[in-house]
Request: fold
Amino acid sequence: MIRRYIVKGHSMEPNFHDGDKLMLSSLFLKPKSGDVVVFSSGGRDYLKRIAAVTAKNNFTAVGDNKSHSSEHAITRKQIKGKFLMKY
Reply:
């Protein structure tokens, strides 16, 4: 399934900017280090990069802009989609 997502915030600069429009795929099976994903946590959606695979179906996700980002421990079930392209 293909989804649309609008970037909110500055945690992924300089690669993604506030207001950028992205296409995501939810049809990927195995997230890997370096993938950019959207995940849900605490009722909010976040765009982050997978920094590490910590265990089966567990990941560490961080923003590219270290001064505007924090580290998140997430599970595969929280991931809504993987970045495909800007449009």
Observations:
- The longest strand covers residues 44-55.
- Residues 56 and 76 are 9 Å apart (CA to CA).
- DSSP finds no helices and seven strands in the chain.
